[in-house]
Amino acid sequence: MINWTSLETVFLDMDGTLLDLHFDNHFWLEHLPQRYAEQYDLHPDEAKHQLISMIMAERGTLNWYCTDYWSERLAMDITGLKSEVGNRIGYRPHVANFLQALKKTGLRSVIVTNCHPDPLELKLQCTGLDSFVDCIVSSHQLGKPKEDTAFWQDLQQLAPYRAATTLMVDDSFPVLESARAAGIAQCLGILAPDSTQAARETHPDIPCVHHFDEILSSIHQQRPLPSSG
């Protein structure tokens, strides 16, 4: 599925790949509509309908992910509201073992996320995820989302890499398709990003897994640890 021997760098999405997407789905589909209804004296169903319409109109753009944009657009403190349900932030299964395996075998691991820096900081405080990886890049630092093919060239400024020796892991098929179009040699999709929802259908052209335990053995087989002797 993955040729680990050819790799130097592993780019990793965060939400839905390393962290359970349940937090984000709950926030945008349940918690924010509730707070929005309270602030603007709306029926909960009407509040949810209004929000989803606004959010879907920004799909695929940096605004979709931008806490500053939504805070201004809705006149609400989005990062503060996210912290109200911060107890829902957590890892997906087998993530720690996977990240430790990458580190032990000498592969460089870089989180490449569309998450805005403010909620990113909240998630790092809750999980300590930054201790497992070599670097973290938010697409907001480059002014364009990962869905934009030009993002991958600009990424060289913050996390230089060789496309031929790089793997991108993400739960978003549009992002993986963007990475492939930009020349990233290998891609891997995640089919079960939200622990409370059923797994999605696989991609016809991109290898996929539900959880990282499905590929741990292949890492160890292809990149055995150096002998201590």
From TrEMBL:
Enzyme category, top tier: hydrolase
Keywords, ordered alphabetically: Hydrolase, Metal-binding
GO molecular function: 5'-nucleotidase activity
Pfam families: HAD_2 (PF13419)
This enzyme's EC code(s): 3.1.3.5
InterPro entries listed in its UniProt record: HAD-like_hydrolase_sf (IPR050155), HAD-SF_hydro_IA (IPR006439), HAD_2 (IPR041492)
Name recorded for this polypeptide: GMP/IMP nucleotidase
Lineage: Bacteria, Pseudomonadati, Pseudomonadota, Gammaproteobacteria, Pseudomonadales
